[in-house]
Write a structure and sequence with these properties.
The protein is an all-beta fold. The protein contains no helices and eight strands. The protein has one domain: Sandwich (Immunoglobulin-like). Strand 1 and strand 2 form a beta hairpin.
């Protein structure tokens, strides 16, 4: 089944290891800029800032461990991950950017 939309959408998805290594997906580079902080740079700019969703990867984490997107632009997005106490901490994650 094809996805239909009222707009011409670009979609980028990926998986990133806790150390900042890309483990799945194409169309982006990733740079680990600090504890639990990763910059995803899109190979091709979006027409406008995309909607971005991120979630922790794996089953060895607590339900309160987290990943969220911050500061999305047409060129990049920052993903921050944290532990179950809310402290910034390295975690593997998946993301989808669409726009």
């Amino acid at each position: 089944m094809a996805i239909t939309a009222n707009e011409n959408l670009q979609i980028i998805r990926g998986t990133v290891a806790a150390d900042g290594t890309r483990t799945a997906g194409y169309g982006f580079t990733v740079t680990k800029t600090g504890d639990g902080t990763y910059t995803i740079t899109f190979n091709n700019d979006f027409a406008e800032p995309p909607s971005v969703v991120a979630t922790i990867d794996g089953d060895s984490w607590y339900l309160l461990d987290n990943a969220h997107a911050a500061g999305a632009t047409a060129q990049r997005v920052t993903i921050r991950t944290g532990d179950s106490l809310g402290a910034v901490s390295d975690r593997p994650f998946h993301f989808i950017a669409m726009g």
